[in-house]
Write a structure and sequence with these properties.
By secondary structure, the chain is mainly α. Helices cover 77% and strands 0% of the residues. The protein has 13 helices and no strands. It is globular.
Length: 277
C-alpha cells in the first residue's frame, strides 16, 4: 500500500506564520481585553450593578447608543445616495468628491471635533444662522449626533459602492422596458440587492460611533446627565481613580462591541450567500 500523501500549501511557512499571528493577537488584543474582564470579575455583583446602572451611567448609555443608532440610520440613507451618485453619474470632479468621502478616516478625531464645534457654535458659520431660529447644535444632543454622522458616513459609502458597481445599469433598463416604474425598480430590484451591504455599512457605522471620543468630546459640552457619552464617562472615572467603576463600564461596552462584531460577521456571511445564489 502506498502511504497517503499529505497535501501541502504552495506557500511555505504556515506553522511559523500562524504561531506568530496567534502570539501577536494574543499580546495585542486578547491579553488587554482579558485584563478588563478579570478586573471586573473581582467586583461583587452589587458593586458591579451599582457601577454600570447608576443614573449618570444610564444617561450616558442612552446618549451613546441613541445617537449612534440615529447617526447610523441617517448614514445608511444618505450613504446610499452618495454611493449612487458616485457610481451611476459621471460628472466633473467626481474623483475629488470620491476622495473627500474618506476624509473622516484620515482626519484626526480631535481636529474634526474642533472644526465641528467652531462651525456649529453660536458664533460659527452655521450656528450664527441657527441661533435666531432657536436651534442650538453645539453642546447639545444634536451636536453629538452631527459628529457621529460625520465620522460614520464613509463606512456606508465604501460598503455599498462596490456592490453598486457590480450591478449593471442594464438591469434597471430591463425593468423599465418590462413596465416597471422608477419606484418599483428601486424597491423590487435595487434595494433587495443592496440590503446586505446596507445593513453591514449601518452596523459598521454604528459600531464606530459607539466608541467615538475625540470628535464628540469638543462639541458635546460634556454635561453629566445631558451630553456625556460613555467613553468620556470612563475617562472621568479614571481621572477620579475609580478604576473599578471605569472597568465595569468598559466591560459593558466590550460586550456590546462583541455582539456588534458578531452581527457584522453574520451580515457579511449572509451577503456572500445572497450574492452566490
Amino acid at each position: 500500500m502506498t502511504p497517503a500523501r499529505t497535501s501541502r500549501s504552495i506557500l511555505p511557512g504556515f506553522g511559523l506564520s500562524m504561531g506568530f499571528t496567534l502570539a501577536y493577537l494574543g499580546l495585542i488584543v486578547l491579553v488587554p481585553l482579558s485584563a478588563a474582564f478579570l478586573r471586573a470579575a473581582g467586583m461583587s455583583t452589587h458593586d458591579f450593578v451599582a457601577a454600570v446602572a447608576s443614573p449618570r451611567v444610564i444617561a450616558a448609555y442612552r446618549l451613546s447608543f441613541g445617537a449612534s443608532l440615529a447617526a447610523g440610520g441617517v448614514n445608511m440613507v444618505f450613504g446610499l445616495v452618495v454611493a449612487w451618485v458616485l457610481v451611476r453619474y459621471p460628472f466633473p470632479g467626481r474623483r475629488i468628491i470620491d476622495a473627500l468621502v474618506d476624509l473622516p478616516f484620515a482626519l484626526p478625531t480631535a481636529v474634526a471635533g474642533i472644526a465641528l464645534t467652531s462651525l456649529y457654535s453660536a458664533h460659527g458659520w452655521v450656528g450664527r444662522w441657527l441661533a435666531p431660529l432657536g436651534l442650538q447644535v453645539a453642546f447639545t444632543w444634536t451636536g453629538v449626533f452631527v459628529a457621529l454622522t460625520f465620522i460614520g458616513l464613509p463606512f456606508v459609502v465604501r460598503t455599498v459602492q462596490p456592490v453598486l458597481q457590480e450591478l449593471e445599469p442594464e438591469i434597471e433598463e430591463a425593468a423599465s422596458t418590462l413596465g416597471a416604474n422608477r419606484w418599483q425598480a428601486v424597491t423590487r430590484i435595487l434595494l433587495p440587492e443592496l440590503a446586505p451591504s446596507l445593513l453591514t455599512g449601518f452596523a459598521l457605522a454604528f459600531a464606530r460611533a459607539l466608541g467615538e471620543y475625540g470628535s464628540v468630546v469638543f462639541i458635546s459640552g460634556n454635561m453629566p446627565m445631558r451630553t456625556e457619552i460613555v467613553p468620556l464617562l470612563i475617562i472621568t472615572k479614571l481621572e477620579q481613580y475609580d478604576y473599578r467603576g471605569a472597568t465595569a463600564i468598559a466591560v459593558v461596552m466590550l460586550v456590546s462591541s462583541f455582539i456588534l462584531l458578531l452581527l457584522i460577521n453574520l451580515l457579511q456571511k449572509w451577503s456572500r450567500r445572497y450574492h452566490a445564489i
